[in-house]
Specification:
Helix content is 23%, strand content 24%. It is α+β, with helices and mostly antiparallel strands.
């Protein structure tokens, strides 16, 4: 029987709060699920009482905060089973990438995980998943083989490309609009190490060096750049304290000597504040981005670009109090998957984003998006939409028009009452 928590419980605040502190769910009741049966009970309760459902694992990508209704927390559902012969893993709903990485590593395998090992693997994957090996292996969603999901009628369904193919297609991109996913089977890739890490340069100009460098980067190289205003604080490494620095992230999924040769071209740009790029086991891949692990309040917005001319880079020079990030896309991300899914905007060449600290949306978000409009595809990436920017207008931009229409049709089929509303919401017709 699922453990239920209400607002008068001492556990209420800790259970409803996730990583993203810009907004939090405030449900009438929380179902702290430990297995798929608990999820079925929670969905049945919500349907019987006409309550909307929200689901939270780690809470990194909170889209729509609930007021009332049912919250299903899945953090206790964190099992992993690796099949080394098939090179696959079964992951439960609340499993963070760190557990999948650790379980796969003894077999010389790795998942298509993202920059932050603490992020929930299942929700990340259903939203697409642009990970550390994305240009070589594509979206994490493209490696999904099966999805176990509790539908709006509280039934447990296994969706595959052959069984429930419409539901399988819709979940991979449409995320939680069609049910509560309780487990995934994913393919793993034969990777033990990466040539990876971080280069730090003083100031902003090294972004231009990165832009020129990635123009000829092979698909084995997945990289990004961030310009970060570091506080003058003891927890910041001494070379970075009080500086605005360019952080170039390297993840080369190929022979380390080739990765080193390519990185030397960047090192030639000039003196580094810090240089921590070397061959590393995949279990240490979190050091590449070194994302925060403690809960934070922030706002993030982004544009998908078809090209990155020098003028686009310069659009962020004046945003000195914000974190600015550019990721190179392309490669395998631009190719259709073997099994079709709903992930959109595969034509984008770059993802250009801005992060502001604190719960409020600052004017710099609209300023940067407007400045980038000449090179924008007009699209959005679902996993990079959270808090105030996860509007239905932006969510619609994550899909091709025909895809979005089909998703609305399937939402009407699988969840006509819009039970699963508190997600990256796609409305039924």
């Amino acid at each position: 029987m699922a453990h239920t928590i209400t607002a008068d419980s001492d556990q209420y605040d800790s259970e409803r709060t996730g990583f993203q502190l810009s907004a939090s769910h405030r449900p009438d009741v929380i179902f702290a699920a430990e297995n798929a049966a608990d999820v079925r009970a929670a969905v049945a309760h919500a349907a019987a009482h006409n309550l909307r459902v929200a689901v939270q694992a780690t809470g990194h990508g909170l889209a729509t905060a609930s007021e009332g209704g049912v919250l299903i927390t899945t953090r206790r559902m964190n099992g992993v089973r690796v099949d080394p012969a098939a090179a696959t893993a079964w992951i439960e709903a609340g499993t963070p990438w760190s557990k999948v990485i650790e379980a796969a590593a003894p077999h010389g395998l790795a998942p298509l995980s993202g920059a932050a090992p603490a992020v929930g693997a299942l929700s990340y994957t259903l939203g697409g998943g642009i990970g550390l090996m994305a240009r070589k292996h594509g979206y994490a969603a493209d490696q999904v083989r099966a999805i176990e999901v509790v539908t709006a009628d509280a039934e447990l369904v296994l969706a595959t490309p052959d069984k429930e193919p419409d539901l399988f297609w819709a979940l991979l991109g449409g995320r939680g609009n069609f049910g509560v996913a309780t487990g995934l089977e994913i393919a793993l890739v034969p990777v033990k190490t990466l040539y990876g890490g971080a280069l730090f340069f003083d100031g902003f100009d090294a972004v231009h060096a990165w832009r020129e460098w990635v123009a000829n980067a092979p698909e084995e190289m997945t990289s990004s750049v961030a310009v970060i205003p570091f506080p003058d604080a003891p927890f910041v490494p001494e070379p970075l304290r009080g500086r605005r620095a360019t952080h170039i992230r390297i993840a080369y999924a190929g022979p380390p000597e080739e990765g080193e040769r390519l990185t030397e071209q960047l090192r030639a740009y000039g003196p580094r504040l810090m240089d921590k790029v070397e061959e590393i086991p995949y279990t240490q891949s979190g050091v590449i981005h070194n994302d925060p692990t403690d809960p934070v309040a922030s706002q993030s917005s982004h544009s998908l670009l078809r090209e990155l001319p020098p003028q686009a880079v310069e659009a962020a020079r004046s945003l000195t109090t914000n974190i600015v990030e550019i990721r190179q896309l392309g490669g395998a991300l631009s190719r259709p998957p073997m099994t079709p899914n709903a992930i959109g905007n595969r034509d984008a060449a770059y993802l250009y984003g801005i992060v502001s600290r604190g719960p409020e949306v600052t004017p710099e978000h609209a300023q940067l998006e407007g400045a980038l409009r000449p090179w924008s595809t007009g699209g959005k990436a679902l996993n990079f939409l959270f808090a105030a920017h996860a509007t239905e207008e932006n969510i619609k931009k994550a899909f091709a028009p025909r895809t979005y229409d089909r998703l609305r049709d399937l939402k009407t089929t699988y969840d006509p009452a819009d039970l699963f509303h508190h997600t990256h919401h796609i409305p039924p017709r």
